[in-house]
Automatic annotation (TrEMBL):
One Gene Ontology cellular component annotation held by this UniProt entry: membrane
Domain Major facilitator superfamily (MFS) profile: 28-479
SUPFAM superfamilies: MFS general substrate transporter (SSF103473)
Major location category of this protein: membrane
Protein's recorded name: General substrate transporter
GO molecular function: carbohydrate:proton symporter activity
Family membership: Belongs to the major facilitator superfamily. Sugar transporter (TC 2.A.1.1) family.
Organism from which the protein derives: Corynespora cassiicola Philippines
Stored NCBIfam families: SP
Topology class, membrane: Multi-pass membrane protein
Membrane-crossing segments per the record: 21-41, 81-101, 108-126, 132-154, 166-185, 197-219, 291-313, 325-347, 354-376, 382-410, 422-445, 457-475
Length: 513
């Protein structure tokens, strides 16, 4: 086909000047991050609903627990199932979306996810018993799996490399906005002693699906997907729209040439099946190495323990003797929202690797302080103040580092032939461990079960210590590189030396320096 680069060439040098980032192009890329609201709101509203007295009355059974209302409360296994089933749905949804995104496109897959999500919301709003509520959250989770996996992929593929980290971090920002909105809605309805107390928070989920699904019709498909499908003209139009440049711009021609050259190079060395995700072993060029990195990174993001606060924070603060637990949950969620935008700047200036290392250090210090003070001074005012203050500092570290950076990195480390599937596997890992943590936590902290209270932070502090070691030894630095350059960098250097790697072009073939 005319205009396609020779198959032997592999581009990705520093000599290509990217098109200036226009406001329109930036906003087009940023809008996709709105998908994070589905993730955040759907994850966050359930914590407040579970603490509502009317919900306990309608969905509960006789209980002598201190948390019961009029002697009624759902059991620990029901609470575990209600919370964690969303993650089970997203796990399978993310895996299914990986193949679907290569078939029908990134944008179409996310739109399909919005429809599936909406069907799940219908069941949640209609529910009057645990069974239908669980079914609704399972189906909604399947749709969120589509969105959470493919939005990251889409943003990574359409964003200019100079602001890719900041734009993908916007996804985490919208997750935090969703969590905050859920907390505000729960606070507004929790004293209502009718079904509106829990149905209003559930029904509002439709708003986010409608806005995202409708808005995506106005965005272009990923130019890299068009390249995969040998649709060069469509790829050119998509790039021109995203970069705010005319079709015949030299910027567009050069970027398209790089995309095509690398796609053809990669297809000569690998295929794009699920099996190919696990080929190559631990070699620098091996796909398995990258899949393990992505899967482990998302696993450790969950094992920072942050979702303990957002899933069970209201209940936990009540157990700690705080009468205004709903307000405290709103405060911690607000800290999450306000801290995340810091990463828009730091992720490009300091880099992904540094944020992950120092963020984990900050979190583990806070977690051990909460655990020690909460155990030694249990029930005291000093312990309560310490818990609130260091929980907020802990959330600050997560929101400004591991929250966004883990999503940014998984969108960058996979070669194009397996990128959709690699991101899907990584996202599925996030949801798998989200499910595990959501399910086991009630057995760790409920007063009728483990009743660990603040001691649970010894667990999170220990896992955060492992996060530090993982980030130091295994996570490469990817800031300032195109996706094609990241692919080469992973083949040519080690994580600890990656920040010094620079791309060069010698005799028409890419060679790292």
């Amino acid at each position: 086909m005319p205009g396609w680069a020779p198959s032997a060439a592999r581009h990705g040098d520093d000599s290509r000047i990217e098109a200036p980032v226009t406001l329109r192009g930036y906003l087009l890329c940023v809008f996709a991050a709105f998908g994070g609201i589905l993730f955040g709101y759907d994850s966050g509203y359930i914590s407040g609903v579970l603490a509502m007295n009317y919900f306990k009355q309608e969905f509960g059974q006789p209980s002598d627990s201190a948390d019961a209302y009029n002697g009624l409360l759902y059991s620990s296994w029901q609470k575990s199932l209600i919370v964690s089933i969303l993650s089970a749905g997203t796990f399978f949804g993310a895996l299914f979306a990986g193949g679907l995104a290569d078939w029908i496109g990134r944008r179409s897959t996310v739109i399909a996810g919005c429809f599936v999500f909406s069907a799940g919301v219908v069941l949640q709003v209609a529910s009057t018993a645990v069974g239908l509520l669980v079914a609704g959250r399972l189906i909604a989770g399947f749709g969120v799996g589509f969105v959470s996996a493919i939005i990251i992929l889409y943003m990574s593929e359409v964003a200019p490399k100079a602001v890719r980290g900041a734009i993908v971090s916007g996804y985490q920002f919208f997750i935090t906005v969703g969590l905050l909105l859920a907390s505000v809605v729960d606070q507004a309805t929790h004293n209502n002693m009718t079904s509106a107390s829990y149905r209003i928070p559930m029904a509002i989920q439709w708003v986010w699906a409608i806005v995202l699904g409708t808005g995506l019709f106005l965005l272009p498909e990923s130019p890299r997907w068009y390249v995969m499908k040998d649709r060069q003209a469509d790829a050119t139009k998509a790039l021109a729209t995203l970069r705010g440049q005319p079709l015949d711009s030299a910027y567009i021609k050069d970027e398209l040439e790089e995309l095509v050259a690398n796609w053809r190079y990669e297809m000569e060395h690998m295929q794009s099946s699920w099996v190919d995700c696990f080929r190559g072993g631990w070699k620098p060029s091996g796909n398995l190495r990258r899949v393990v990195l992505g899967v482990a990174l998302q696993m450790f993001q969950q094992w920072t323990g942050v979702n303990f606060i957002f899933y069970y924070g209201t209940t936990f603060f009540k157990q700690a003797g705080m009468s205004n637990a709903f307000v405290i949950s709103m405060i911690t969620t607000a800290v999450n929202v306000l801290s995340t935008p810091i990463s828009f700047w730091t992720i490009e200036k300091l880099g992904r690797r540094m944020l992950l290392i120092y963020g984990a250090v900050g979190m583990l210090v806070c977690e051990f302080i909460i655990a020690i003070v909460g155990t030694v001074k249990e029930g005291s005012q000093a312990a309560s103040i310490c818990l609130i203050v260091f929980t907020c500092i802990y959330i600050f570290f997560f929101a400004s580092t591991w929250g966004p950076a883990a999503w940014v990195v998984i969108g960058e480390i996979f070669p194009l032939p397996i990128r959709a599937k690699g991101v899907a596997l990584s996202t599925a890992s996030n949801w798998l461990w989200n499910f595990v943590i959501g399910y086991i936590t009630p057995y760790m902290v409920d007063d009728t079960e483990g009743n660990m209270k603040s001691k649970v932070f010894f667990v999170w502090g220990t896992t955060c210590t492992v996060c530090v070691l993982f980030a130091y030894f295994f996570v490469p630095e990817t800031k300032g590189l195109s996706l094609e350059q990241v692919d080469r960098m992973l083949e040519e250097t080690t994580p600890r030396k990656s920040s010094k790697w620079r791309p060069t072009l010698i005799n028409g073939s890419g060679v790292g320096g």
